[in-house]
Design brief:
The protein has ten helices and 73 strands. It is α+β, with helices and mostly antiparallel strands. Helix 5 (763-827) packs antiparallel against helix 6 and helix 7 (859-875) packs parallel to helix 8. The protein starts with a helix and ends with a strand.
Length: 997
């Protein structure tokens, strides 16, 4: 058994270093599923704008941020089978096709060159831009096209030996153009009398792809690479030692001077992606995520540090060379925990413990058999009573074989490493030697601030050991509400030891006592899974399926910040770490990087392919993440650095009413740059757009609005807007891009859109109609007003005429009575009295004539008139009537007006009907009183016969009342109940008149 263990351990050490060189690079594969027209990629080219062009056997694609715009014969391309792409000095893109010649594209129009334009052959393999010319490599030799004039020249001097003259590649050296052919060798193009001539350099068979780097020419041959110093090649001297074992078709070099070779073995499986270093071709396909063995091209994007690799059968591969995230395959072993001792890293995994140096190579391994042997030896030698369930321990099974050992945790404390497992607790020194063992079974251990060992017991409370080797400890009962139960993490911070529970919240150990924050009502949160601390000494806690909290517990408990579950991308929190001002929240979706309310997401697109994180640890500026097959190391300085985001949004396609926009086909719209004017009939728009300047297209979300005062649409990952049936008017189509990689949002106005209204909704038509309607309304209004005024004048005249008629009815009655009185004086020869009476009467008649022409007079004028009238009437009576006048102080008699002679008929009625010869002390009282701000009350009161008079003079009384009411109604706008007459059997009559003043 020991020999077998040694053999197993030795074999493990022998193969183990290999595992740590198994570094993986993040990559992505693009095929027809993502939009490529064909998976057979014959050409890759990065233009001056950093845009990748892909030539396939079924058309050309332009890729920007993972999105494809395709060109083919239907759009103007000369032929769909594209074998090479290049760009000239004027920015035109050229496409070499296999059977369709060459196509020049200026961004708007295509120009096709074939045999009609004097190309020697329409099967073109390679292109080279040099000065103002495009060099074209066909299967019958090269041709030269002037990019200004499009004139085609064919160099002379060499005739094909085998019926073909296959140009495989070009390069420039010392201002001269060289080209290789597959079977004949190397040639250059010289000029004699301005005419191009082909000159042989040296004969050589099988020159496939060429690479020219640091004065070395790399040439693909059958099953290896030929290498030449360029001077030796030109002078036909001896080549360098060949290397490799496949046919290389293309080369590329990155910013770190790593040379890459794309290989396709044609008749074997030797192809793939290789790096060339130290005279060796090293297959790096697996670590770069390349699954195809049939590679034809490779190109390097220096701005983004990305390698693009084209295959003959599986599209293109995009490899991120920016090593922010490194993955190391650990021979498919599950990583349980990490620790560090200076520059060494210690990994606890399912097969034991491994010590790594600073280059991640294995230095030392402690195997399962080492742990099992130490446990077995301890049990044999110890004099301690082994703990049992009856003693309150979580009992160990000492018969567990080494291949069933399970490790729980690796913890560094002071000068030791502590390992918990299902066979007990082990203490190791920093050299990796096991120095002690405790027969204790626990999932979570820790140390108090005074270095006492903490054992958490499932369902059995907690022990704090004063003497661990002798198992002397203080037990804290599980029945005490302050005893920690179901503990998953222990953390020391600022003199306190914190323990978190998945069911019972937060606990703290201080001064040899435990305290439950939940029991004491300090914090009601119950379920926690993770705890860490930031550089300010603040605690950060997270539940597995809940929020993340930042708290300060230095003096008093205070929640400083809460990161809502809704903000976190992912459902399950797998780990929690803090770095500088950042909080790193690991979920099944990736790493959420939180700072000041902004969250960035790092996931498989940046290289985090395995989301099943088992453990995490930060060592200085590096985050280590364990998985079930290996581990990641992440450069935190670069990870948290400011990230570039989308710099521009371009429109790739516009369709109006489901028809793609082509200005030559429509007369109802105009489109120029970012402005579009459309007729009202064409008001449904589909807009495809491309975000530019970004490395991670899957991290982008988009929303739009049509004007700044509109609401934003919901976020979407689609790069298309559909705007159906827009009303007429102006729109500024805005797109907000939220970049989860950079944690930034940016707003772009991509299109100014104006939908013209129909003529009946145009401003001039509406203005004309409004003007006409306004004129009609004014004319109708004037006509109505004229008729209304005429009606008012007629009604007023009718009222005046009626009033005059009423006045004329009352005046003769009074005159008749006065004349009778004068006649009586004369008959009785009372000449002096008659003269006085006539004088008074004439004055009264004059006042009557003056007042009768007025509709209203003042109270003073009315009183003066009534006094004159009463004086005349009393002269003809033998029993004169006493007269009393009562006026309230608030009445201004000089300015308050009442209708003319309205009171006179009632006063006259008193003199004619109220009294007889037997009446005792007849009296007439007239009062004026304001009963509101606008109503004046006048009362005419006598102490005459009252009801008896009313019965005798019913007809006369009714006529007088009717005439007076009608007159007052006309003068006071038909106010009702203006006159009220009350008769009393012995107390006379009271007439109440209301005036609106």
């Amino acid at each position: 058994m020991p020999s077998q263990n040694k053999l197993r351990f030795c074999s493990f050490l022998f193969f183990f270093p290999i595992f740590f060189f198994g570094q993986y690079f993040p990559s992505k594969n693009y095929t027809t599923t993502e939009g490529l027209p064909n998976n057979a990629v014959r050409a890759l080219f990065l233009d001056s704008k950093n845009v990748l062009w892909i030539g396939t056997e079924n058309g050309v694609s332009r890729m920007e941020n993972g999105m494809f715009t395709n060109l083919d014969e239907s759009t103007g391309l000369g032929h769909n089978s594209c074998w090479d792409i290049s760009e000239d000095a004027d920015g035109n893109i050229w496409f070499a096709s296999y059977s369709g010649g060459v196509t020049k594209f200026d961004g708007r129009e295509f120009t096709v060159f074939t045999k009609k334009q004097k190309l020697p052959n329409e099967r073109v393999r390679k292109l080279l831009p040099f000065k103002n010319k495009m060099y074209v490599g066909t299967e019958l030799g090269p041709a030269i096209i002037d990019i200004k004039t499009n004139k085609v020249l064919v160099p002379k001097g060499i005739l094909p030996q085998f019926g073909v003259f296959l140009v495989s590649d070009f390069f420039v050296f010392e201002n001269e153009v060289y080209f290789s052919t597959i079977n004949e060798g190397l040639f250059k193009i010289i000029y004699e009398n301005k005419a191009p001539i082909i000159q042989e350099v040296f004969r050589h068979k099988f020159l496939y792809g060429l690479g020219f780097y640091d004065y070395i020419i790399y040439s693909g041959n059958k099953g290896f690479i030929d290498r030449f110093k360029v001077e030796d090649l030109i002078s036909n001297k001896k080549k360098l030692k060949p290397i490799g074992n496949s046919i290389v078709w293309d080369f590329a070099k990155d910013s770190q001077n790593t040379l890459y070779a794309a290989a396709w073995g044609v008749f074997d499986l030797s192809g793939g992606l290789y790096s060339i270093s130290d005279d060796k071709m090293i297959d790096i396909s697996e670590s770069y995520g390349i699954t195809s063995k049939n590679l034809l091209n490779v190109v390097y994007n220096g701005k983004k540090n990305i390698l693009y690799v084209g295959s003959k059968d599986n599209g293109i591969y995009e490899v991120q060379l920016d090593q922010i995230i490194n993955y190391y395959n650990f021979n498919d072993k599950t990583i349980i925990d990490f620790e560090a001792i200076k520059t060494q890293k210690i990994i606890l995994h399912q097969n034991g413990i491994t010590f790594l140096n600073n280059e991640n190579n294995a230095l030392k391994n402690i195997s399962l058999s080492d742990f099992k042997k130490y446990e077995t030896d301890f049990i044999k030698k110890t004099k301690l009573k082994l703990p049992t369930h009856a003693d309150g321990y979580y009992e160990l099974d000492y018969n567990i074989p080494e291949n069933k050992i399970e490790f729980y945790e690796l913890l560094k404390h002071q000068n030791s490493l502590w390992v918990t497992s299902n066979i007990g607790i082990f203490e190791l020194n920093f050299e990796g030697k096991i120095i002690s063992y405790s027969p204790i079974h626990t999932y979570k251990i820790g140390f108090t601030n005074d270095h006492k060992f903490i054992e958490t017991i499932p369902y059995g409370g907690v022990r704090v050991y004063d003497d661990l080797p002798n198992l002397k400890a203080k037990h804290f009962s599980e029945f005490d509400k302050h005893t920690p139960l179901d503990i998953v993490k222990i953390l020391n911070n600022k003199g306190k030891t914190y323990l978190i529970s998945v069911f019972n919240g937060l606990f703290v150990h201080e001064k040899d006592q435990f305290k439950s924050y939940l029991t004491d009502g300090i914090w009601k949160e119950k379920k926690f899974k993770h705890i860490t601390k930031n550089n300010k000494g603040q605690l950060i806690l997270a539940a597995e399926f809940g929020d993340v909290f930042v708290i300060d517990d230095s003096k008093s408990f205070k929640i400083l910040n809460t990161i809502s579950k809704k903000e976190i991308i992912g459902n399950t929190i797998l780990f929690l770490e803090a770095y500088k001002d950042y909080i790193l929240i690991g979920t099944e979706k990736g790493i959420n990087i939180y700072k000041n309310g902004v969250i960035r997401l790092i996931d498989k697109e940046q290289g985090l392919q395995d989301s099943k994180i088992t453990t995490s640890q930060i060592f200085e500026n590096s985050l280590w993440l364990g998985t079930k097959k290996g581990y990641y190391t992440i450069d935190l300085n670069r990870l948290t650095a400011t990230q570039l985001t989308v710099s521009e949004i371009g429109i790739s396609k516009i369709a109006i009413n489901n028809v793609p926009l082509k200005s030559s086909e429509y007369k109802w719209f105009r489109y120029n740059s970012k402005q579009l004017i459309s007729d009202y009939k064409y008001n449904s728009f589909s807009i495809d757009f491309i975000p530019k300047g970004h490395s991670f297209p899957n991290k982008l979300k988009f929303r739009y609005r049509l004007n700044s005062n509109n609401r934003w649409s919901p976020y979407s990952e689609k790069t298309n807007l559909f705007l159906p049936y827009l009303p007429t008017g102006n729109y500024n189509v805005m797109i907000e891009v939220f970049d989860m990689n950079a944690g930034k949002s940016k707003v772009f106005t991509i299109l100014q859109l104006y939908i013209q209204p129909p003529f009946w909704l145009s401003w001039w038509f509406i203005s004309l109609v409004a003007t006409i309607l306004l004129i009609i309304i004014v004319l109708v209004f004037l006509r109505i007003k004229k008729k209304s005024n005429e009606k008012i004048i007629v009604q007023r005249r009718i009222a005046e005429t009626k009033l005059e008629a009423l006045l004329s009815q009352m005046n003769p009655h009074f005159t008749f009575n006065a004349m009778n009185t004068i006649q009586s004086y004369i008959a009785h020869r009372e000449m002096e009295e008659s003269m006085i009476y006539i004088s008074e009467f004439s004055k009264l008649i004059r006042k009557t004539l003056e007042n009768s022409s007025k509709q209203k007079i003042t109270i003073d004028e009315e009183i003066e008139y009534l006094k004159a009238y009463i004086k005349i009437e009393n002269k003809r009576l033998e029993n004169p009537i006493a007269f009393e006048l009562l006026i309230s102080d608030e009445i201004d008699t000089h300015f308050t007006e009442i209708p003319t002679m309205l009171l006179q008929p009632f006063v006259e009625n008193v003199f004619v009907h109220a009294f007889n010869e037997s009446s005792q002390n007849p009296k007439l009282t007239i009062s004026f009183k304001m009963i509101s701000e606008t109503i004046l009350e006048c009362k005419i009161i006598d102490n005459g016969m009252g009801i008896n008079v009313a019965k005798k003079n019913k007809l006369h009384e009714s006529k007088g009342i009717q005439l007076t009411k009608e007159r007052l109604s006309l003068l006071q706008d038909s106010k009702e109940n203006s006159i009220e007459i009350n008769f009393s059997e012995h107390n006379g009559t009271t007439v109440t008149i209301m005036f609106w003043v």
